[in-house]
Model the fold of this input.
Amino acid sequence: MTVSVFSVVLGIAAAGASGLVGSFALMKRMTLAGDVVSHLALPGLGLAFLWHLNPLYGAAVTLAIGIVLIDQLQRRTGFTSETAIGVIFVAALAIGTLVTPTEDLIDALFGGLEQVTAGGFIAGMTGCAVVLGTLFILRHKLITIIFSPDLAASLGINVRRVNFVYLCAFGLTILLGLRSLGSLLVGAMIIVPAAAGRRLAKTLDQFLIASSVTSIAAVGLGFAIALRWNLTPGPTIVGVGSAIFALTLLRRG
Amino acid sequence: MMAIVAVKHLSVTLDGHPILRDVNFEIDEGESVAIIGPNGSGKTVLLKSMLGILPYEGEIIWQRGVTVGYVPQKIEADRTVPLNALALLRAKAGVIGCETNEIATTIARAGLTEEILTTQIGHLSGGQFQRTLIAFALLGNPRVLFFDEPTASMDEPGEEQIYDLIHRFQHEMKITPVVVSHDISFVYRYASRVLCLNRAGVCYGPPRGVLTAETLEQLFGSRTFYEHAPHS
Done:
């Protein structure tokens, strides 16, 4: 198996974006919602495989539906939203598994490393730039909301809108990682590096940097190991990320 | 003199339950206003409506260009979040677009020590966290400061320090404080006007004029609150 420089560059850029998105997801305590969003990609992937379309187009459509759904659920506090999230989670997985052609199922769930086309590379890098730009613009507002939604609202921040835009950046990050990680594992690359970064950091800046570096290291090392021993890249990357997290547990904190 | 804020026929209904009904009052610049009332009388809801956090009926007319700082009663700080006071102040400075040197001025005014600035918010003591909230509210030089039960989780020396701080802001920075308080001695010592609230406005005026035994009984249903008052 060979891999182009473009795939690696795109993988690293997407890893940096997912480390940052994951840091905010961890602080916003929306890791569960993140899993649901990523699993909603599966029915889209499956239908696209079935109809011989670009699988990412299908995933984009169902991800968008997932984002609107999660946004609506988050607004309904008091309603047992966690239960609803759990149901959507398994339903998406079941429907996705049923509609995905058997020969494509493993790729859809765990990702496969295909060569990136020039168009795919440009689209992917643009996606990374959009995610990073969105987080950069929203960072002060997101932090204020994480501290206290009421204080944020008292400063004139439209809390719902900022949360929704963040969720869209989250969905886009999932889409960026879907090709190589698959819908079952892509959520892990949002959560695992952030969990490791959190163990290593005392301040916000350290946290954001540590999460991104962990994410990039997991993707880089994971790619290398997968190529060397001819393994499936998705599980290898997530395995390396989890190993880094396990190492951070050795540190007292 | 034009009122800094005028509240007219304010009513608030949350989830179908009426919380406030036809509340009317005005605050002039330079005053120090206390809001008192029993638990569940709508004090916090009143502040949040005035801040635009909660929807309401009626009118809340702020003088043009007035900014308001808000020190909420309690924030359940997430202990796992790696945020410290400095990061929070920087975030607010970014949101309201104020100069970075204002952060240093605010830190000095609120008396934030290096230790408070660099400790994760989840690990601060009650008093340290309160000062962090005050600094957050002060940044950007607001003309009005809302305090919701600023001494609720504090011991007596801590209370005195917070009251002194509020008093200083009023005189040195020309801030108009609006303080929700359970502490009747604070009302008598510092407030130029007091709003008695029990879902509707029960009284409004200078404490010594409006806080009669009858008003307090109407407000709290007994005289216990009144009997705690200092005999001055």
